[in-house]
Automatic annotation (TrEMBL):
It comes from Hymenobacter edaphi. Its EC number is 2.7.13.3. The keyword Kinase applies. It catalyses: ATP + protein L-histidine = ADP + protein N-phospho-L-histidine. This is histidine kinase.
Amino acid sequence: MLPARAQDTLALPGLRQRLRVLPADTSRVRALNQLCYGLHDVAPTRALPFGEQAVTLARRLNDQPGLLYALLYLSSCYANLSDGPHALQLQQQALTLAQRLRHADGIVRSYAGMGGIHHERGDTTSALRNYRLGLAHLHEPGVSVRTQLMLLGNLGGLSFYMGRTADGLLYTRRAMQLAHRYGDLSGESVYVGHLGTYYLRQERLDVAEGLLRKALALSEAARNPRVEASQLTMLATILLLRDQPDEAEELARRALALARRISFPERVLDAYDILAGINEVRQDYEQAYGWRQLYVTLNDTLNSKARLSTLSALQTRYETRAKEHQIRLLTQRAQLQQLRNRVLWAVVATLLLGLAGVGALSWKLRRSRQALARHHAALEQANADTRRLAASKDRLYSIVAHDLRGPVTSFVGVTELIDFYLRRGDEEGLRRLPEQVRQSAQHLNGLLDNLLNWAVTETGELAFEPAVLTLDALLREAVELHQSAAEARQITLTSAAPEGLAAWADAHMTRTVLRNLLGNALRFTPRGGSIRLSAVRATTPGEVLVQVTDTGSGMSPEQVTALLNPDHAPARHGHARSGTGLGWPLCQAFVQRQGGQLQLRSKPGLGTTVTFSLPLAQEPAPVPEQHIVTSA
């Protein structure tokens, strides 16, 4: 028997054929949901239109169960396209609906999905909280085996990631036993492979090899080529570590052929990497170089596709919002026409009544004019909103086209340097390249983070979730995150905050502000300099102040004025703070959203101090119960 996921994939062509003849009823909602779910992992960009159509149709038909799964599957698509905030918003809508319907399967799926998105974004605390909330409903009637497997498997992976080995083994084995009990060979193969990966990390290669061989046999029996390709590459890796290059090469070539046949580029990339390693062990450097070149080319292609997929998802959301505005405009125009018709009928009727109806007619006309004025104002507002959205989209594309070119050009330059150093046999030059690649990658990651956050603020979907934040822990966390970059530049990075001082603020927004301010300070502080993070209780009641002070090059008064002016981008000459032009506006937006203010003091050669205020957490500070707002 084929596993559920394999059956879903095989059924996709037939579903597309059925969709052409299905009427706009609940059966069409089910078909759209199946198409979205079947494609959300392998082709999320193609799955997105099916999910959006399912949500729209289910709402129009008031199909509550269909809407529940449409929201869940659409959220998975956006999560796979790295649009975490929107995916969380959809999951929260699904959770609210599932709780209203008392739908146990939908409740557990929502918690599991949100936990997965938080895990992907590195927020292990929120991920674990959501998974535990899902566990509380796991054994209620109506929870499907597929949903149970998803929650247990995700929880096992998170436990291993957090170093909770006993919990990781417990949940992974429970998932493996559940898949075995219900004949889900593909699922059983995945979880046996997870155990093998754990023992590989523990360097217990004999146990890891045995588990991966068992996982491979299960995936072959399940006839699931995607899982089989993954197991082949993992087993080849273990055999290479155990000094068995011949069998490792055989398995890697099998994985390569299979991954190419099913268009699975991630596993093709893994096979290239393993084959390059095997030839390096055999000291066949020419073959190793050839495989490595294939790896680099494909990896660059996959990274470009991932960025394009994320931008495509953003464009789809912009276009969907624009269509909603057009529908609203048409509806309002129809209402205006109906209103005019009613007014005309009222005039005719009043004239027939004669002079006795003159007063009533005058009163009705005044009411009609007021209604027309209100609707006209509403139309004007809708037009203004549409123009603002179009301007926001144009600005986003302009920033992407201009500022992403720099990091990408850096990567191209590195590849040219590799060729140059290889021709010259310059090993010292080659050893310097990883640091350049790492810096370019970190720069590119920061750019994309700011772009996505800016897109959320521009569309008005910024989720504000305040909580009690202990400032000494928050500042230590920021220091630890940037410590390696500071040490590489011989910069002293410290933090100080009174013990127990806390703010009532949104954790994600505050971390984003600190990341941007620290990133700027590190870029413009010379070697041997220092950066200090501090927090104090403000003289103004009910506020705390957070400061980032550096001994960098500083800025002239003209540059400070240009940076503080919201109508102009930061200066881009000399030692001015440069970037996408979004870092400082993001910091201002996030601080103001939390009720604070952002201030800047700087002088050339004397460094820069940035101060922002946050509301003080009252003592005692109760932690509010969060209404949980990422994949199936």
